[in-house]
Design brief:
- The chain has about 250 residues and is α/β, with parallel strands linked by helices.
- It has a domain of about 90 residues: Response regulator (Rossmann fold).
- The protein has 13 helices and eight strands.
- It has a six-stranded parallel beta sheet with strand order 4-3-8-7-5-6, with helices on both faces. The chain has a two-stranded antiparallel ribbon with strand order 1-2.
- Helix 3 crosses helix 4, helix 3 packs across helix 13 and helix 12 runs antiparallel to helix 13.
- The N terminus is likely disordered.
């Protein structure tokens, strides 16, 4: 086993630790046989907006810093890591979760999907079962109170090996904070909008846009009223904060 799987390189961006590794190494750390991480294993990811929120939200930054995996997500976080003199691979959370889900299905893990609309989670279950007829799956849309004890009891009764959360930011992180240590689920994966992409209820950016780091622009064009402020104002503000951090750090 590659020693990097056990001791992944990291970088700190605005006080949040990010794991700098490729998809396979991150997944291996989460569900590999020889993974040293204790249960529950928590997988999260950090794009620029999450890092900005975490910098002003102590409980969120603590959760991200103690996660088994905090995957680099998107061009903004990659640029931040490079500005802070870290050698980071360019990955994004959607591709990470595609590979994670595929491996979990191939290994016949018991999977529970929590999040998205009724249509989204229903289509995600249907697509997964069509590709993997032996898969043991269950799911629940996210349009409900996540503190509902009935939901928690349902998850406990199903006994998933992996719980995929598609509740969005910051709700999915609040859910992990409130329930991860009391539920008997060994692996919890926060996925954000991934359910929509996997189920086909929301289109991903064209491949050419993803290759040059413009997936954020595609999302903003799809939901301008909700996302324009986050991207148009948020990205420059984030990068300026990262530059200030770079100049405060001693050169290594």
């Amino acid at each position: 086993m590659d020693s990097q799987i056990h001791d992944l390189h990291t970088a700190s961006v605005l006080g949040t630790r990010i794991h700098l590794a490729g998809y396979d190494a991150l997944i291996e750390r989460m569900i590999g046989v020889d993974s040293p991480a204790p249960f529950p294993r928590i997988s999260v990811y950090s794009h620029f907006h999450i890092l900005t929120l975490a910098a002003g939200t102590p409980w969120l930054q603590e959760l991200l810093n103690h996660a088994t995996v905090n995957a680099l997500d998107g061009i903004g976080t990659w640029l931040a890591a490079r500005l802070l003199r870290a050698h980071a691979p360019r990955i994004n959370a959607t591709d990470y979760h595609i590979r994670f889900l595929r491996r979990a299905l191939e290994e016949n893990r018991r999977l529970f999907f929590l999040g998205g609309s009724e249509e989204t989670v229903s289509r995600l279950l249907k697509i997964s079962r069509e590709k993997y007829p032996e898969a043991i799956l269950d799911g629940q849309h996210g349009l409900l109170s996540t503190s509902d004890t009935t939901l928690l009891e349902r998850i406990e009764a199903f006994k998933p090996d992996i719980l995929f959360l598609g509740l969005g930011t910051p709700l999915q992180f609040e859910w992990i904070r409130d329930h991860a240590l009391t539920l008997h689920v060994p692996v919890i994966v926060a996925t954000g909008a991934f359910f929509n992409f996997a189920a086909g209820t929301r289109p991903r950016a064209p491949r050419w846009m993803r290759l040059i780091g413009l997936e954020w622009l595609h999302r903003m064009l799809l939901e301008p009223g909700r996302l324009w402020r986050r991207y148009i104002l948020g990205i420059p503000t984030f990068l300026l904060r990262v530059l200030r951090e770079r100049f405060r750090r001693p050169r290594q």
